[in-house]
Amino acid sequence: MTVGGALGKDLLGLESLSADQIRLILDTAEPFKEISERAIKKVPALRGSTIVNLFFENSTRTRISFEFAQKRLSADTVNVSTAGSSVSKGETLVDTARNLEAMRIDMVVIRHSASGAAQFLAERIESNVINAGDGTHEHPTQGLLDILTLRDRFGDLKGRRICICGDILHSRVARSNIWGLTKLGAEVAVCGPRSLLPNAIDEMGVRIFDRVEEAIQWAEALNVLRLQFERMTAGYIPSAREYNRVFGITRERLERAPRDVLILHPGPMNRGVEIDSDVADGPHSVILHQVTNGVAVRMAVLYLLAGGKPELAEAAKGGSGRGREERE
Amino acid sequence: MRPLLLRGGKLVDPSQNLNRIGDLLLSDGVIEHVGGSIAGPEGAEVVDCRGLIVSPGFIDVHCHLREPGREDVETVATGARAAAAGGFTAVCAMPNTEPVTDNQAAVGFIVRQAQRARAARVYPIGAISVGQQGKVLAEFGEMVGAGAVAVSDDGKPVASAQLMRTALEYARTFRIPVIDHCEEPTLAAAGAMNEGIVSAQLGLKGIPAEAEEIMVIRDILLARLTGGHVHLAHMSTRGSVELIRWGKERGINVTAEVCPHHLSLTEESVRDYDTNAKMNPPLRTAADVEALREAVKDGTIDLIATDHAPHHYDEKEREFADAPNGIVGLETALAVVVTNLVEKGGLTFPDLVERMACAPARLFNLPGGSLAEGGVADVTVFDPVAKWRVDPSTFLSKGRNTPYAGMALTGRAACTIVDGLVVYRAEVPGTERER
User: What is the C-alpha radius of gyration for chain B, rounded to an integer number of angstroms?
Assistant: First the structure.
């Protein structure tokens, strides 16, 4: 993992990153935010790079966000999804990877339903690998964009109280958030039905709330996870209706909080299930800000993995925006 | 057949309290003479065993030889040769073959393949239920008549308590153990590793210790109910040890085995999604390993068995959740036990021989397990201090799937003798020894 720049060869998860590396990505994302605000949203930083977006699982938001990030950095990209590819003809992951490698690509962005798939790929090919979500393991760029959004509001996250609500057991977003936030010194809690929390979650250094009302009393920000409906057929919870009544983030519950609580959601939302519309669309929601930050964070990750110098990110975008020094 | 004189080795045989340097003379397939210094008869082949331990042949009561059905990953012959290379003079082959070994013809086939192999002995284990479907009892009597030494649906748990009860009752007629793979199927469903902090972090579905322990106590209670002999395969948790101890204290007819990997590795081995650390039951925690080691020492766990489970390279070279369970074990078992229990754990060599040779023979009613004169000449000669590095490409098994690849281990078979014939000899016995 020493090839490439300051991040190493791959971005597989936030578990393996240091606090400094996480800050570096967030800092590098800052100058890239501005590019998306321009009329001509393109800089030449990755011109000539070939990137494959390898999506073995459905995704709209993450795939589009990566694609925009790549295009705005002038990379050449190819999208592969399982339907219609050789994967649907029974090709193994390792063969798919080797064939891509043989086409001399520079990076692979992989989304896969199996935990560990990104690492599996990274160990077998020379190209940089970016994990865009592997099973229920990690989704590092989502974690990073959530953290960037929190940092935009709070500045330093040390001592800030963030609660992740919902299906922690099956959430790769939760794991990446827990690693990233705890490394940056935030206090992290989880809240959800115990049937959707890993048994050993407290060993990851998080506080557990059984009742969402208690979480709201404690937290300065809630990251509300999507409730996946297949969990109900699997018998983890009885119904979406009861979930909303017991764990839903509603205006009534938030009004009893001792402070304004920032609301994040990695999307896509089930309005009226894990989150009510008036909260999602309310004054303390930063849900769309997360989406905007997603492009900048992914640009930063692509740029750094390609060996880009963090201090040149400002120059790389070819603009005259604020420098890094001024921001800090 | 030339007589074989094993000269100058340390004779270790807890079945007759033997633990001293001496000679062993084998002829006509039996142990002819055990003594301090034996003058070899005319024409006897002399094997220099100085510095080596000479013990009753090791017996592995739990391995998967894949024939019939998956001859691409192992056959009875390759498995029997791998066993001999690991110091085993006999192994018991689990019935989860394709088709399942659930009738006398299938049992007879394995017996014949084993005779052809002329390596370690291979005793078939018959299925408990037809097709291992967990519904209809297989024909224990005919299978025993054809050479089966036990019954098991291993690979699958016996989910039905009623079927397990009936099997324990019915097996009493034939005086064979009923081996259970203890796993409560609904709790373990889709599990890929131990449930705990590592599974939480890796995002892999966990199998709680309780999935094993629920079935352990069920089986112990059914053994109490029926008086049958239940043998619990591959125990992996501290809780199981406590339950077995509870059963034995009450005189219930329960015996248990543990695998070398559960005595040496923990769930931490799965951290990098290494599919060669994926097995069922899964690698557990350090506390479990510690409890299992203690149980081997105090005899709560009766014996060590490998659960040798060869898989094709391609089947392991994939996403963790989709990879098959199991590792090869025949050629590393002795060294893993010496390295982890003798060198570091305070297990004595007589106890090791008891767990790997004497107890399997006694509990499964098999020939061997003793160096007593007149007994079958199944003998293992091993180097207790040889250091070697595990190189799977040198395995005689077709399987290469091992988490021990590249590890430095201590202890290695030098010579394996079945029925008075040398079926394995390390290339230059003893030269690798470092003192």
Answer: 20
Q: Is residue B433 part of a domain?
A: no
Whether B254 contacts B230, CB under 8 Å: yes
Instruction: Tell me the mean pLDDT in the region A229-234.
Output: 73
Longest dimension (CA), chain B: 67
Kindly report the CATH number assigned to the domain that includes residue B191: 3.20.20.140
Contact list in A for residue B320 (CB cut-off 8 A) is: 114-116, 120
Q: With contact defined as beta carbons under 8 Å apart, do B353 and B13 qualify?
A: yes
Q: For position A314, what pLDDT does the model report?
A: 76
Measured CA to CA, the distance from residue B3 to residue B5 in angstroms comes to: 7
B431 within a domain of the structure (yes/no): no
Q: Grade residue A243 by pLDDT with cuts at 50, 70 and 90.
A: very high
Q: Flag if A116 and B196 touch (Cβ within 8 Å).
A: no
Burial of B37 from C-beta contacts in 10 A (0-12 / 13-18 / 19+): exposed
Between CA B144 and CA B141 the distance in angstroms is 5
| pLDDT per residue as tens digits for the range A255-269 | 999 999 999 999 999
Q: Which residues of chain B have pLDDT under 70?
A: 428-435
- pLDDT of residue A326 exceeding 90, the answer is no
Chain B interface test: which of A121, A199, A204, A231 (most B C-beta within 10 Å): A199
The residues, any chain, with a CB within 8 Å of residue B191's CB and separated by 6 or more, are B205, B206, B207, B211, B282
Q: What pLDDT, on a 0 to 100 scale, did the predictor assign at position B372?
A: 97
Does any domain span residue B432?
no
Task: Give the chain A residue whose CA is nearest to the CA of B198.
Answer: A200
Q: Are B31 and B104 members of one domain?
A: no
User: At residue A328, does pLDDT exceed 50?
Assistant: no
Domain end (from B328, B363, B398): B363
Contact B154, B242 (CB under 8 A): no
pLDDT of residue A309: 80
Q: Which domain holds residue B38?
A: 4-54+375-425
B370: in domain: no
How much is the pTM?
Answer: 0.93
